[in-house]
C-alpha cells in the first residue's frame, strides 16, 4: 500500500506524481489535506491495483489523471466512479 498522509512538512508543494511498474501494489490511499498542490497524477502498469486511489477526488488542484496499462477491473471501477477533468485510462 502507498499512503499519502497529511503533514505540515510532507508533500505540500508536490505538483506531479508518476508511479509505475509497481507490480505488487494493491492500494493507494490519499488522506485529506495531503498533496494539496498536486496537479498531475500518473499510474503506469500497476496491474494489481483494482480500484481508483482512495481520496483521488478530494485533490482540489488535480487537473490531469492518467492511468496506462492498468487491469480491466481498475478501468471498470474508474468508469463507475469517474469525476471531472482530463482523466485518461489507456
UniProtKB/TrEMBL annotation:
Domain of life from the UniProt record: Eukaryota
Identification of the protein by name: NB-ARC domain-containing protein
Organism: Glycine max (Soybean)
Amino acid at each position: 500500500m502507498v499512503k499519502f498522509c497529511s503533514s505540515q512538512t510532507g508533500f505540500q508543494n508536490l505538483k506531479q506524481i508518476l508511479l509505475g511498474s509497481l507490480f505488487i501494489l494493491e492500494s493507494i490511499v490519499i488522506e485529506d489535506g495531503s498533496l494539496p498542490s498536486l496537479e498531475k497524477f500518473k499510474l503506469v502498469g500497476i496491474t494489481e491495483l483494482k480500484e481508483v486511489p482512495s481520496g483521488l477526488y478530494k485533490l482540489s488542484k488535480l487537473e490531469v489523471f492518467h492511468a496506462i496499462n492498468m487491469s480491466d477491473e481498475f478501468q471498470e471501477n474508474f468508469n463507475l466512479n469517474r469525476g471531472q477533468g482530463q482523466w485518461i485510462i489507456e
